[in-house]
Predict the structure.
Amino acid sequence: MDASEYGPRSVVFLDGLRRRWAAQSLERRFTIAASLVVGLSMLTLGYWVERRIRTGWEQGMAEIGAHYLQAFLAPHVLELEHSDALSEDSKDAIRAQVTDSRLGQRVTMIKIWNRTGKLIYSTGKAREDVQLQPLRLERLLRGQVVVSPHGDSHGDGDSGPRSLETYAPIYKPGTNTILGFGEFYEISHSLDREIQQLRYATWFLILNVAIIIGFLLYLTIRRAGRIINSQQSELEANLARASALARRNNMLRRAADRARLDAAVSNEIYLARIGADLHDGPIQMLSLLMLRLPDEPPELRAQLERLTQQTLAELRNLSAGLVLPEIRDLSPSDTIEAAIKRHEQQTGTDVARDLASLPDQMPEAIRFCAFRVIQEALMNAYKHAQGRGQHVATRFAAETLEITVSDDGPEGSEAARPDAPQQRPRLGLRGLETRVKALRGSLTIAQQSQGGLRLKMTLPVRRRSLRTKV
């Protein structure tokens, strides 16, 4: 099998493992993770404690054996103070002690090294050219007792029962003078039994501690999991309630917007009805009066005719201002163009245009308001500036309709300061401001530095409302 095939398989395996892990509950994932952490921690702690106990026991047994070896060998190696070798009598005495006493039951071999680290005597088979390791010799010269953790052989290639290999300095009795070094192999059956029992006790204690810790962690995790689940359920319920409230507020806001638009349309319809009533009522009566004036005396006829014509002119102007042209089926751009053309036809003046592209659909209230604002602003420019510099500009951006109407002011007038008070009547403009604010728009009027006024209206136009028939 190609080694490259293992890559995709391992990726698939890891992906499956991650999916299975993610599918578990938070409580189970935390329990598994905590169990692994506690288990590994307890294993590491148990191994470390066992090693420390074994090392301590072995070192303690070695210290005891070193004192025993000192008392046993020191009388037979006094000649090493002035020599680097042992006499045959000393060797025979040491051999007899090992074989004829109880020492031989625990010590399987004894070796003696001189102060240079050369082997000078061994109760077993050993090469005479063997030297102590430099690091071990350095520690022995400092008076330390060295225990080999692998004292399973006697150095002669023969395997025997497990024994504790110990190196210890041999002092001259009553002094700190080192005569040589002794090496002995002590059978460690009792030590192994003690360590084995201690190992079982240690692991039993660690296992119980791990079980208790794991159980307490499980209880804590279970309680925390229940709290988290309850809080999560409460949060989901609160989120659902908040979403419902948001939907309800959104519905109420749309209903309020529709109500404002309906009110604006209803107001326009109401004004149109008033205009129609003025046309069909008082104007018709005055027209009938004009027809009957020839029957009156000439002096009275001329006076009544003049007053009647003035009254008719005022009423016709009033009714014409209240009745909008048919703009229900016009687009926003056509509505604005109709307001400008109507003003041009009524006043005989020209109006400059800078009309941007507008959406094809807007609510009727928005179009009615735009028509009224342009109509009133242009008429104000005609009355007070004789129609000089009349200009209409539109812009649509960020769901906002912006209309600007400006003029150059009356001919021959000096340029007013930007902060100068406005002198034109504000009655009609106040009505426009009320109309615009009803649609959540804004209306600002500013005096231009070169003279004249600049009226700017902004109306919010939501895209959802563009598809709604009001």
